[in-house]
Automatic annotation (TrEMBL):
Residues 27-50, 93-123, 145-261 are annotated as: Disordered. Residues 137-187 form the DM14 domain. Pfam families: CC2D1A-B_DM14 (PF21528). InterPro entries: CC2D1A/B, CC2D1A/B_DM14. It comes from Teladorsagia circumcincta (Brown stomach worm). This is DM14 domain-containing protein. Residues 202-219 have a biased composition (Pro residues).
Amino acid sequence: MDFTEIEKSIYGGNIEEDEELMAELLALQQEEEAKQRRSAPPPVRSAPAVTVEARRGVPIGVDPTLLSKALADDVEVDENALENDPELLAELSGLIGSSEEEEPTDANATAPRPPPKLPLPGARDAALVGKLRGLMAVYERMLAASAKEGNTVKQRRHQRTVDKLRELVMKAERGENIDESEIPPSPPSFVTPPNDTVVPPRQAPAPPAPPSSQPPPVPRRSTSGIMQESSAGPPPIPQRSSSSCLPAESPEKSADSRKDQILKVLKRRRDAYVANGK
């Protein structure tokens, strides 16, 4: 059986001259080689060879012949010249000065630092309190103006600023520290009040005096008053005025009254007779 005939009948023509098949075969071969390279272990690096100079203790990069010649030269050193060398003297003075400067810093570092002074509980910054109150008054006027205009956005913003300033004023009056970044910005119309017009700090009321344990003294009565009261008699009894003291009636009035009495008596008698006759 001829296989070439079978290949020609299946693939058609010469396979070795087919460019597409050769390109596909080359791609498969490159992919297989790449897989093998990835799976292969990394190469072990060999240690550098030790040179003869390194074995002898000579540093690498130094010519041993030149080194031996330099060591063989007898160089005379003038000590007087070294003592008067300005460069060496400047370097020495710099080293001595730096050491002297380091000593006091070390002493300062080891010395205990005094504790920071804490603000007094009742102390407060009068200028800061005056500034905060002035700002709060300005923003309150701006809040009233925005409320009158009906601008709700400005009204809410001014209300938040007024609340913040009120809180800062309370902190400043208590003597607490206030960060400058917390203070709202000052409007252009605001002027910082002078320190003289600032309200003085409130003084704590004096504590009430403790109640005394002793009772109050009893007032003394004078003996002269008692003697006067005892010597004085009872008050006089008022006397009733007698009838003689009354003013006398006129004779005409007395005569008329008698006539009236007589007429009354006569009328009673007449009425009695009439009643008996019936």
